[in-house]
Amino acid sequence: MDVPIHTLRYFCVLAEELHFAAAAARLNISPPSLSQQISRLESVVGEPLFERTSRAVALTTAGEELLPHARRAVDAHQDVIDWITARHNAPAPVLRIGVVAAGAGPLTSRAIASAVQRIPGLRLEMRKVGFFDPQVELAAGRVDAVFAPAPLAVDEDVVTATPMWTEPRVLVVPAGHHLAERASITIDETRDETFVAVSGGDPRAIAWWLVDPRPDGSHPRVGPVAQDIDGILALVGAGMGVNIAAASAATHYRRSELAFVPIEDIEPATILLCTRRRRDPVVAAFVAVVEAEARAARA
């Protein structure tokens, strides 16, 4: 039995995107080709890995069980490629960038493009980071810089968290929700909603995103929870509740089953750039690039 590594990579990307067109675009292949590769993997496994409907894609139980194994295999393969590359090429500066949810929205892409132009030979590696994991990932050396939303609890002796960007917050609702077509809403209009929240983590950060307590002293009703943004959006799309996110989620996670409605009377989200307190020259140069892009965006 042989499972090509590229097939596992395709599976992992689809598991993250839960959208064939978005995953195919990310992989630079056509949706039919991606569907064919996934079908072949399901034939090898002997059962479906994804539940497919006209409106949504979701992992089956088998898919959820396979995902951590597939990720380890893909990461191990990349480690081998990196080792071979290092043996044959002169050392090049490497910057491992972590992104929580949608990161800093459009600023992320602009900063990365600018960094590639300004730092000779720079090689970038991108990694998704959990809502409350920036310090853990930085301390372990798996990333060198992380775009993460505030509030974020960090040990200031270990991590430097610099505010870079602010953006409004939006209510994420199913496309058929009674608020989905509104141009904007107030937070008071969500008083009867059930909220999908992130599991675990800093209660103060969770409360801030839920706007808990509300201006009138009431508390939002919290329902299902998920570990990451993909899980949260999947629950919202399934009609299990609503969520509050940064406005850039509307672009980064655009899906037909979701609507993103601006909330006009709550504090905007602040995006932080987190690094280890001791920065090497490449990281310091990247921070300077991001700061310059942020200043230009605010001008």
Give the arrangement of secondary structure elements.
Elements: H1 5-17, H2 20-27, H3 31-45, E1 50-52, E2 57-59, H4 61-88, E3 94-99, H5 106-118, E4 123-128, H6 134-139, E5 145-149, E6 159-167, E7 169-174, E8 194-198, H7 203-210, E9 221-226, H8 229-237, E10 243-246, H9 249-252, E11 258-262, E12 269-276, H10 281-298
Parallel strand pairs: 3-4, 3-5, 8-9
Antiparallel strand pairs: 1-2, 5-12, 6-12, 7-10, 7-11
Shape: globular
CATH architecture of the largest domain: 3-Layer(aba) Sandwich
How many beta-strand elements? 12
Low-confidence stretches: none
Number of helical regions: 10
Number of domains: 3
Distance between the termini: 58 Å
Q: What's the overall average pLDDT, rounded? A: 90
Order of helices and strands: HHHEEHEHEHEEEEHEHEHEEH
For the largest beta-sheet, the strand count, sense and barrel status come to: 5 strands, mixed
Relevant CATH superfamily of the largest domain: Periplasmic binding protein-like II
Radius of gyration over alpha carbons? Answer: 20 Å
Strand arrangement across the biggest beta sheet: 4-3-5-12-6
The proportion of residues forming helix, as a percent range, comes to 40-55%
Structural class: alpha/beta
CATH class of the largest domain: Alpha Beta
